[in-house]
Amino acid sequence: MREGTPTTAVQGPPHPAGGGHGQLDLMGALFVFMLATFIGIMVIQRVSRLLHTPLMSLTNAISAIAVVGAIIVSAGKEAPTFITVLGLVAIVCSTTNIVSGFFITDRMLKMFKKRDVNGGASR
Amino acid sequence: MSAETLVQLLYLVSTALFILSLRWMSDPETARKGVFSGVAAMLLAVAGTLAGVAATGGTHYWWILGAFVLGSAIGYPLALVPLTAVPQRTALSHAFGGLAAGLVGTAKYFLYYGQRNAEALAPFIVVALVAEILLGFLTFTGSLLAAGKLQEVAWIPQRPVTYPFQNLVNLLLFAVALGLGVALVLNPLAAWGPLAFGLIVLLSLAFGVLLIIPIGGADMPTVISILNSYAGLSAVAMGFVLNNKLLITAGALDGSSGLILSIIMCKAMNRSFTNVLFGAFGQAQQKAEGGEEKVYKADTTESAAQIMEQASLVVIVPGYGMAVAQAQHKVRELYDLLKKRGITVKFAIHPVAGRMPGHMNVLLAEAEIPYDDLVEMDEINGDMPQADVALIIGANDVVNPAARTDKTSPIYGMPIIDADKARTVYAIKRSKNPGFAGIDNELYFLDKTFMLFGDAKAVVGDLARKLAGEGGH
Q1: B357 closest CB neighbour out of A36, A56, A58
Q2: pLDDT (tens digit per residue) in B370-383
Q3: What one-character DSSP code corresponds to residue B332?
């Protein structure tokens, strides 16, 4: 496909929030993916087992980063209406996850308490 | 500074904050900081995206705002569900995440297709697009079904659904989807492109359902973790499509989190990924049961209370039954009463107890039981021989000694909490039926074991009342 018109960037319409200068930096993206996966694995391995449920709701909220793609799709000027609609529905879904994910994580974390100094038995 | 640079800088800070957010989850002391950092990262990401869109002339801002408002309106009540419903809420939000990724992928394909944009549909991008919609839509229906099973929706079968050649059918469907994907990569602008794309979407939706129907409740912790991972990976694929490094990073963090949790869950059940996904647990066991009728020794809460009063170490092993009965607050009462008598009380937490990773910890934390007393399986097992009483509340497979001794048992090799090594065992059980997996539990027939039949909440409440009534201080 690349031998097409060399004047256009590999990535068709410019993505305002996309990377670089519209140029698809495949290798760079793969490096980022590889490094982020390693960081993720190392960081997550240290997460206390006590907190695995809140961890999952937190990463739920984080994976709602898809909202970025949804906004880009929805805001496209030349897109047919049905594409805008798909984007907007995706924004609704992601926002749902962002709001519920962060709120419930915090709600759960507030409950984790150490034993208080006077023995913990008293309320 | 160009708008583009500003956007990338915002994304850079956002990425760092996401990593810190997970880093701070390592300790309950700093974990809430992690949430704030995650929120900040998300706000920066959204702000950066909007700034970038504005700089290149975007539109539909009111609609986008409306979508934010609607999403928040749906999301907030979902954050207020009772904690026993957290597994289904989590599954539901995996479904939303998968749907969002799938929809964005679909929109992108049709946008580029409509523009006849061969450059934007370069082979690599189409690979990413296909991966995005495959993972996205599969996660969508799979998670919806998992949520339905967890919520015990009436028309969704709880028991694993199996049929002949199930795995073969799944593999064939997958192969068809893959073949269509390859065809699309080679000819993204072909006249049949949208049709092939639509078929892949349908197959992915079907695939999600087919993957989850053979999975039983006991495997839910693993399945939820795997779906978590898929939701993250679909965001990664979206990142490749949009050439957006923030999406790739955040998606990869989520993906690796799901991966690690699934590995922990699999290890805790001594099973492999493939075995969980294609094994249809809970089917073969019933046949393995022998004909002879074994007899339970039932006991009263009164004498259980008396035995516990004499103990110096009581280990409580909670399971899904505690969650179902919402017994955690009564458990806290019992905990307080025992503590008041100077008895040491510990909770033994098996990694797969409940329906999602960490499920028991959250419920017990809700009941304000200090987390210092929630002990992981590996740590508590050394202390089990010193325990005077092991009190089992709605747990079954995770304390079944067959896992250590019986090579024919389906759970053989699974690490368990050694409740059978305690001096006396009390087991609270809803009914005389075998547990979820349908496996008989030898523990219940040991000489030292006494059964307390009934709803966990009622029985624990009763125990607490007996303990409070007798003597006290």
Answers
A1: A56
A2: 999 999 999 999 99
A3: H
| Partner residue facing A70 (CB), from B100, B117, B234 | B100
Structural domain count, chain A: 2
Where do the H-state alpha helices sit in chain A?
26-45, 52-63, 67-74, 81-111
Full DSSP string of B9-29: HHHHHHHHHHHHHHHGGGSTT
Residue B22, in any domain of the structure: no
Both B306 and B271 in a single domain?
Answer: no
Low-confidence residues in chain B, pLDDT < 70? 277-294, 433-439, 470-473
| Domain co-membership, A62 together with A23 | no
Range of the domain at B359: 301-469
Residue A40 lies in a domain: yes
Q: Which of residues 57-86 of A touch B (CB under 8 A)?
A: 57-80, 82-84, 86
**Per-residue DSSP letter, B67:** H
For residue B406, what pLDDT is reported?
A: 85
Q: Please report the pLDDT score of residue A87 as a whole number.
A: 96
A120 contacts B370 by C-beta, under 8 angstroms: yes
Q: Do B97 and A94 touch (CB under 8 A)?
A: yes
Evaluate whether residue B168 is within a structural domain: yes
Q: What is the pLDDT of residue B431?
A: 77
Residue B291 confidence (pLDDT): 46
Do the Cβ atoms of A18 and B57 come within 8 Å? no
**Which tokens sit at B175?**
């192969």
Contacts of B458 (CB under 8 A, 6+ apart): B325
Q: Are residues A42 and A80 in the same domain?
A: no
Tell me the one-letter amino acid at A99. V
- Is residue A59 in a domain? yes
How far CA B381 is from CA of A85, B368, B419, B448, in Å, comes to: 55, 24, 8, 18
pLDDT digits (tens, 9 = 90+) for A49-78: 999 999 999 999 999 999 999 999 999 988
**Angle between helices B31-55 and B3-23 in degrees, nearest 10:** 160
In whole angstroms, give the CA distance from residue A74 to residue B107: 9
Query: What pLDDT shows up at residue B430?
Result: 84
Domain ranges, residue A34: 10-46
